[in-house]
């Protein structure tokens, strides 16, 4: 490991302990050249999760996209931002638990609907009615936003 101070590759580990609830190893290192001390972390590398869209193309799993989708569906409903965040956490956990490297956007939509049904009927119906037609988060999102923008104008 290169020393961040003198850039010599001559550090040694002087202390090693579990960190982040055993999800990482924290190592204290000392440069044998200049004596500078620094810390490194060792973690399991998680493979990037890819979402297969309806047209067969793939994109990286994106929490924000799901969050925006459910927030659009839950617009003007009594749902807190914590509830939205928890929903997305739960969906992400379910996806990660499958242990796959690729998942269809339809499957993610199914997880979202499962959770949304427990939170708010109206948001669930909004999400489900549009999502079932598209089966694709990206085009769904676009339609949802257009629809909400239109409704917003009608209400004003
Ligand atoms: Zn050094």
Automatic annotation (TrEMBL):
- Whichever gene encodes this chain, its name is nrdR
The uppermost taxa in this organism's lineage are: Bacteria, Bacillati, Bacillota, Bacilli, Lactobacillales
Note the InterPro entries from the entry. Answer: ATP-cone_dom, NrdR-like_N, RNR_NrdR-like
- Keyword set, alphabetical order: ATP-binding, DNA-binding, Metal-binding, Nucleotide-binding, Repressor, Transcription, Transcription regulation, Zinc, Zinc-finger
CC cofactor: Zn(2+)
Q: NCBIfam families from the entry?
A: transcriptional regulator NrdR (TIGR00244)
Name of protein: Transcriptional repressor NrdR
Quick check: keyword Repressor in the entry? Answer: yes
Role according to the record: Negatively regulates transcription of bacterial ribonucleotide reductase nrd genes and operons by binding to NrdR-boxes.
């Amino acid at each position: 490991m290169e020393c961040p101070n003198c850039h010599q590759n001559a550090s040694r580990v002087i202390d090693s302990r579990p960190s982040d609830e055993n999800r990482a190893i924290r190592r204290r290192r000392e440069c044998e050249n200049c004596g500078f001390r620094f810390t490194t972390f060792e973690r399991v590398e998680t493979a990037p999760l890819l979402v297969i869209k309806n047209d067969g193309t793939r994109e990286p799993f994106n929490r924000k996209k799901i969050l925006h989708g459910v927030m659009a569906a839950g617009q003007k409903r009594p749902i807190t931002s914590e509830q939205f965040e928890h929903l997305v956490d739960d969906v992400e956990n379910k996806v990660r638990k499958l242990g796959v490297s690729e998942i269809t956007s339809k499957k993610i939509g199914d997880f979202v609907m499962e959770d949304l049904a427990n939170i708010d009927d109206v948001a669930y119906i909004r999400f489900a009615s549009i999502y079932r037609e598209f089966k694709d988060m990206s085009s769904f999102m676009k339609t949802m936003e257009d629809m909400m923008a239109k409704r917003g104008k009608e209400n004003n």
